[in-house]
Amino acid sequence: MTWLVITISSYFILAGAFLVDKYLLTSSIPNPKIYAFYVGLLGVASLLLVPFFGLYIPKTFQLISALLAGAVFIYALSWFYKTLKLFEASRAVPAVGGLTPIFTFLLIYVASFGKEMFSLSEVMAFMLLILGSVFINLRRDRLITIESFKYSVLSAFLFSLAFVLTKYAYLGQSFWNGFIWKALGGFLAAILFYLIFPEVRKDAFKGEKTMSRRTTAVFFLNQAGGTGASILQNWAIFLAPLASVPLIQALNGTQYVFILLFTVILSLKFPQFLGEEISRGILVQKMIAMILIAGGLAMLAL
Asked: Are 61 and 172 in contact (CB under 8 A)?
């Protein structure tokens, strides 16, 4: 179960990256397409790994799967960032977090013609993790609307598709080779963003008019951390059995636990950072969610 430890480690890092992404999207980089463009553009940096790990052209299916996985992931990011920008995180995140592992499971089930299935304990862990992921973000006074649900469904499906394509890409090649090709797929998606969307062409390279030096530094530092988390997450996908890939997505609930902990810690020094009052009822709800997630983790570990 090495993939389990690696997955949780990746979500620990991604929790911090999520908070920085949210800050940048609500302040310095308001256009989700441009933010996704910047993220995808950095995929070309994966070529720096070639001298250390090499690069070869895999079989056609693995090559196409890797390139599509990277491209679809960047497209999913643009929709998720747009969802976060248009709607409160408490509306969008529970839906995306709950639907993504379900879509991933369904896609793998269909792609494997029903051969890849959970064991009974994995089914129970899967359900506990999803319930915990939804419950930790759900706000009764901010229930998801039909419009935000549409955006969340599309984001979740695209993330699921990227995950499944990633796993199938890794089935026929080495980890680093698949990772580099996937990153290059994200880079190609960024180029398409530049060619297709006028607002990206208009604002992408405005330099200081678009981002200050401080924002640029924060963005690159955050992406460096995000890249480390991405490597860990991809490594977990590489190691995990095909049937366990949905569990990696379901474990996203641990990221929300880390986000909550980081937010509370930061709010001790910056009270305005929390952004909302935590009532006793909300605190109890989040504690129950954490117990559900811990139960799911325990079932997987055992």
From this structure: yes
Q: What DSSP element (H or E) covers 283? A: helix 280-301
Give per-residue pLDDT as tens, 110-145. Answer: 999 888 888 888 999 999 999 988 887 776 655 566
Nearest in space to 110 (alpha carbons), one of 159, 152, 161:
161
pTM of the model: 0.86
Cβ(97)–Cβ(137) below 8 Å? yes
DSSP designation for 87: S
Give the distance, in angstroms, between the CA of residue 109 and the centroid of all CA atoms in the same chain: 21
> Which is nearest to 85 in space by CA: 132, 20, 154, 25?
25
Question: Which two structure tokens, joined as six digits, stand for 120?
Answer: 């009974």
Residue ranges of the domains in the chain?
A: 2-301
| Angle, alpha carbons 89-235-137 (nearest 5°) | 15
**27 CB neighbour count, 10 Å cutoff:** 9
User: For residue range 186-208, what is the model confidence (pLDDT) as tens digits?
Assistant: 999 999 888 887 777 776 666 44
Measure the CA–CA gap between 101 and 103, rounded to whole angstroms: 5
